[in-house]
Specification:
mainly alpha, two-stranded antiparallel ribbon, 5 helices, globular
Amino acid sequence: MCIRDRGYDDVPVLSPEEAGRHIAAIAASYDFSFFEHWPTDQIGHRGGLDEAVAHLEHIDAVLGGLLSTWDDARGLLIITSDHGNLEEKGHRQHTRNAVPTILVGRDHVAHAATIHDLADIAPVVRRALGLPSH
């Protein structure tokens, strides 16, 4: 279903690649931006394997647009999740599988070395923004 079918006539319809470039442009205007994407969770719980594959291909195209525009010198891009469930379609629960974290941009190697689980993301964000640790 298109967003326009839901009554949002003023929202531009972008290709996945355009959406990724748009996210990068928005992020460049701020010291910190956060983009939350919940459909993977919904598909993980209720969707079929074909739907999951199609959605991951869609996300891949968005990330392609985002990464093609991302300015490494401008800041740090963190891509992660709070749990797994899309990768194992045999049940509807969250999995205990490791969730990858992808870091791109300024000081990404140093920051990546400090991430061992989800609790390590907030301290990385604080360091990247030059904020005190507490």
